[in-house]
Amino acid sequence: HCLSARAVCRREIGCDRGNGYSWKITLLRNYWKSKVKQEWLSGKYSNIPSQNSLPEKSMYPMDVDTWGEILEAELER
Asked: Domains of the chain: which residue ranges?
């Protein structure tokens, strides 16, 4: 789980570790974020007709830089 979260949330995990969080807390803080971020980055939600079509687990609190990564990926598609 740690490696899969780190593959998607390298910056976020590096920041948490730099702030002194343990590996366990870092994983808890970033696991669901990594799942949602990976789905957005993979294009799973690229052609959704409306916000009502988004599944419940499609959103997660993310910082501005993370949303920037997602929007850049959308622009490249």
From this structure: 3-76
pTM of the model: 0.76
Cβ atoms of residues 38 and 68 within 8 Å: no
Q: HEC states along the chain?
A: CHHHHHHHCHHHHHHHHHCCCCHHHHHHHHHHHHHHHHHHHCCCCCCCCCHHHCCHHHCCCCCHHHHHHHHHHHHHC
| Spatial CA neighbour of 36 closest among 66, 16, 64 | 66
Residues 36-47 have pLDDT tens digits of 899 989 998 888
Six-digit token string for 17:
């570790």
